[in-house]
Amino acid sequence: MKNLRDVWSSRFMHYISEVQKYMQFIFTGHIAIVLVFLVGAGGYQYSEWLKIVESDFPAEGLIALIIGVLLAFSRPTTLLREPDQVYLLPLESKMSLYLKKALAWTFWSQVWIVAIVYIISIPLLKAVTELTTTNIWLLFLLVIALKYVSVQGEFSYRYSERGHFVWVDRLIRAIIFGVTVYMGLQMQLILALVAAIIGCIYVLVFRKKCANEPVPYEHFVKLEQNRMMSFYRFANYFTDVPHLRGSIRRRAWLDWFYNFIPYQKGNAQKYLVFRTFIRTDDHFYLWLRLTAISAIIAAFVDIPFVTWFIAGALSFATTIQLKQALLASGEFRMDMLYPLPEGARKVAVMQVVRLTMIAQAIIVTLCGVTQPMFYVTAIIIFVVSEITAKVSKP
Length: 394
Known about the structure:
Helices cover about 75% and strands about 0% of the residues. It is built from 14 helices and no strands. The relative contact order is 0.09.
């Protein structure tokens, strides 16, 4: 009993240390400033919208839908490793001690997301509903309780069914808990109680099925590996993660982009670099994600200074990370066998980065075309990108 608790404590401390090691590179000074502006601009837009929101706005349905989906996604964090399939097998009868601690951490590490979303929705509820403050906070406690039930439910389902068709389980729980929250917001307390009881019975069915099943080490180990790999891929956008290798996909639907590069001997490196950008998940999704964020801000934030600042910051982040990623290819390539001019790859990387940033500027500008002085955003993106590409070290 004591040994399993020590195993969890050791795993947990190592996990926290690993996360902190990369978080210091993620939440740097410029990212913190961008987040402050995002939160400030979002809060201002939200408060202004609340002043003109219609009284018949379907706030209850929208909030119930969002909360239901957030409650349904309750992936357990077990911190199990591949060797545990062998070394912890003799202790299987006592694994409940380990898994209880894992579920406790899962709940506390996820409940704050649901809590924040609900708290943000409180001003909207007060603006369009007749709920009292007491009712709103009682529903808040209900949402917290439903999150606990959902964590237990997803774990029990994965335990008993080895994770097969987990999306069906999530869909069922999202519907049940979404209906519970909706009925609570409508002050239909009896119906809300009935829906909550149905959800608890649903969870208990799979909890009882776990009693006669062995611990699905293989499934939980794979789940944990995927979870950590997702974190490492995210961290890799901000710093180099040594043991991470990005996956490569053809993306045939983007093959027509290669036509923008003329078929000439002098464009060999440019073609290879552009192909690397398109087909490498880390590079392509980095550009896509930051471009999408900038485009959403440009479309919905009507404060020009905030839009310009965030667009400039994301332009800097996109440029410097793409440049470093495309230049950092240290593996053997066939083009190394040919007598290409020295520095040809660096020139090609600069050209490809410029093309991607021009595309980003166009997309962001088109999304913000209804905003005042929208064209300034494109100028800022291009200027910041050019300065960053020329000044930053390779």
